[in-house]
Amino acid sequence: MQTVLTLTHSLLTRSLPPVFCALALLCFPLADTAEAAPLTQLVTDPHNVLSDAERDQLVEKLTTLRETLPSHPHILIDLPGHVDDIDQYANETFHASGIGQKGQDNGLLIVLDIPDTQSRIEVGYGFEGDLTDLQTHTILVAARPDLKAGHYAAALNGMVDAISEALRKSDTTVQETAAADEAVTFSNTDMLLGGGGLLLFLFGTVFTIRAQRRASRGEPLSGLDRFLISVPWDVLLNLLINILSAAARNNSRGSGTSGNRNSYRSGGGDSGGGGSKDKW
Amino acid sequence: MKKLLIPAILVIGLIILMGSNYNRFMGADQRVQEQMGQLQNEVQRQSDLIPNLVNTVKGYATHEHDTLTDYAAARSGETPLNRIDPRSVSDEALQKKILDAQTRNAQEIKAITAVAEQSPQLQANQNFSSLMVQLEGTQNRITVARQRLQQAILSYNQTVMHFPGNLLAGVMGYHQRVYYEASPAAQTPPVVDFSKH
Lengths: 280, 197
Fold this sequence. Notes:
By secondary structure, chain A is an alpha/beta fold.
């Protein structure tokens, strides 16, 4: 018995460290890979590639473009570090962030994956006519020298300037508030349905309680009473809460920037994979 | 009066429940139709781009010349995918048409890249590079459209199969949908990046 225990102990102490090392090695690349998540800033730079001044200058430029161009483009910049598939990452991030206004899809996302020396411009549906895949590719190719030299701010400024130039020439015009109004109208229908259902629920529970009291007193029950007692009110309540919370989420959804110049709030815009990528 | 109140409330409640479920089914169904239409458009966009590429490549092709000509002949006279109304054909029939188009596009792209890989002059051709960038764009759009179609079908199926939707879906004519599975043969091969040449 003693021998078995000694052997097991020795086996465990020998085998555990390599197992832990292997697990750690497996976990490391996963931890370094950026996953698509909603962006909440105009310029997202978690690895501090840009200086504060460079970031502020870009934020100022993006805000001015949004305010002055007739298409009010929502342009976001993301420097996520290493990503596995830049096409998929850019599209999923765009979709999750809802860049651009709902229904107008006037959003653009510039992604720089510096560790893998690759870049991508993801174009919202609304700008596919103004910025073709070929145009975005030309913009990315023009930024190669700056990217190769490590002048990321210069490269990003050049890209934004070229994008704004292309958008200036287009006749796409967007009303800044149209999408927000639409969202409120849609959610009002939901609120009406949810509210009507809630009213029904309240009446139903009151009559159910009365029916249950009658049953506990041993009074004869009508068919309606038996039906009310058998209704799964908790399931219905759960359903109604879901409808109302979805409506509330819709109502609170707006688009734009808040007090902090760099912050970005989803507008509900989307992209279908338009744009281009490049390697520098 | 009091006797009528409860049935009236129940009827109103039932109407609200049916109405809200019907809206959910219809919404989910419309999203599937939209995504199906999007996939049709993107695959057709790719199909439209290929003849231009073939014309650019033909002058450089030696071995694949006949193959490319055969594909071009097979393509002529077909109804473009984006002109097919998804409501006029069954899901299976439409998915087969999309799948066939994707498979043929994939074979043609394979033949085109085979020519390009052997011809540095072609790789340096500006027109060819531009077309390849567009081709890459269509491939990415197809991938996105296919993923979103799958998500839309999943969401639709969950709506019609989960309680309480499953009680009403069949009566209202909403049945479970088939997922769009692209076979390996239909997957377009990765586009070779000649942009640096």
